[in-house]
Amino acid sequence: MTTASHSDWPDLAGRLVGVVGSRHHVLPVRVYFEDTDFSGLVYHASYVRWCERGRSDFLRLVGNDHKGLIDGAVGREPAAFVVRRMSLEYLKPARIDEVLEVTTRAKEVGAAHLILDQRIRRGDTELFQAEVMVVLVSVSGKPMRITRTLRQAMSDKTD
Question: What pTM does this model have?
């Protein structure tokens, strides 16, 4: 029996989509029973969890190696992106078995922070909006500069 590798599942991390002058990331998610509350609607924290997955996969696909950051690869102090601030808007409910899309785009790229715009949709219907500020910090808690390569990857066009 062989085990499938991540390369056998190209959309497991979603996909980068190019638009004029910037990139955004799209991650499909299915609503499972565990994502809902007693009323049958998606529990509020599920949206936040899906956005976390979207942010992580967006950063991974534009060249941010989470494991490399925390292991201190490339001669840098070990670091990680941490959430500094979130603003959330719940617009419409989602229900079990629906397929949703989490979109993530960089709204602002600073020296040590990113402000990300995240949306969750069901088809053309927007269900949820989030603006999330993440900061790159060392394991000692000090802000660290985001590499030029990662900053450029956030805004380069792709097909």
Answer: 0.86
